[in-house]
Design goal:
The protein is an alpha/beta fold. It has helices at 14-31, 56-65, 84-88, 123-132, 161-166, 172-184, 186-191, 198-208, 231-237, 249-258; strands at residues 36-44, 70-73, 92-94, 97-100, 102-104, 109-112, 136-139, 155-160, 214-218, 238-244, 261-265, 271-274, 282-283. The chain starts with 13 loop residues before the first helix and ends with a strand.
Length: 285
């Protein structure tokens, strides 16, 4: 080529550029991991909590019955040995169900994916310590939080079975009706609780006006109410779903951290919320 040839003569043609960009796009898509949907239960108690006598074997049987892929345990730290449930509780896959350890603290802090008991005494200190362990900090029972003067937590429960009961505790007519339905139509009884919990949803929307705050479902499963709340009922009634590349602890926690998740509630999962708010509750398709 003559020296005087214009420098741009050696530039690739528009067709070559388009072909190169197409190859790069396809390669990028091919390298992105495929995401799968996993159904889970978060906020589950066992015999390690002071208010439950349930066993891991019972939880596993119930989880398989309702088609769960993962269970995040959140026992209250046992008095005298706060690390007991974290040491002896199940981790990893058990008959196809992934168990992840966590803890529920009395100041409404829900620690997910931790290995060691928390030493901090303040709510903010616990949140920071959870993150230092690589876990996630969620707020349980947001209706009990009087001052939201803390930060850096990952999200909060936007539906909790215990809250569903508390909202009706001063309604005698409801409980008369509920007792009559308990034996005749338990599905219909449980579905009475499948209503949006505005006391939680309003706070969640306010927080999301400032920054992303992920919403999760709180099963608050104990199996401790005179046979009315067997694990299979409470584990199947409200669920948190995630989109993750694989069924592992880290993949599930990452999905929750990033809000690749949604919440369903009700017999037949008739209500659904995206984990980052886009509107109100909507019927599931």
């Amino acid at each position: 080529m003559p020296r005087c040839a214009p420098r741009f003569a050696s530039l690739p043609s528009p067709f070559a550029l388009a072909f190169a960009f197409t190859l790069a796009f396809v390669a990028g898509c091919a390298s992105a991991p495929k995401l799968h949907e996993y159904k889970g239960a978060i906020h589950v108690h066992s015999r390690f909590s002071h208010d439950s006598e349930g066993t891991y074997e019972e939880i596993l049987t119930a989880a398989k019955r309702v088609g769960l892929d993962f269970v995040i345990m959140t026992d209250h730290p046992p008095s005298g040995d706060p690390g007991l449930s974290l040491r002896e509780g199940w981790r990893g896959l058990h008959e196809g169900v992934l168990f992840i350890q966590g803890a529920e603290h009395s100041d409404q802090v829900l620690a997910l994916g931790i290995d060691e008991p928390l030493r901090a005494t303040t709510r903010q200190g616990k949140i920071d310590e959870i993150h230092a362990q690589g876990g996630l900090a969620f707020i349980a029972h947001g209706e009990e939080v009087e001052r939201w003067d803390f930060g850096r937590f990952d999200g909060m429960e936007i539906f909790n079975l215990h809250v569903a009961l508390k909202l009706r505790q001063d309604n005698p007519a409801f409980w008369v009706r509920a007792l009559s339905m308990a034996a005749e139509d338990p599905d219909a009884l449980w579905d009475l609780f499948a209503e949006p919990q505005e006391v939680l949803l309003e706070r969640w929307r306010l927080l999301n006006a400032e920054r992303p705050v992920v919403g999760i479902g709180g099963n608050d499963a104990h199996q401790n109410t005179y046979g009315l709340d067997p694990y299979w009922r409470s584990l199947g009634f409200v669920n948190t779903w995630v989109r993750a590349p694989e069924l592992t602890r880290d993949a599930v926690l990452d999905a929750l951290r990033e809000g690749r998740s949604w919440v369903t509630a009700g017999v037949g999962t008739r209500l659904r919320w995206d984990s980052l708010p886009t509107g109100g509750a909507m019927p599931t398709p």
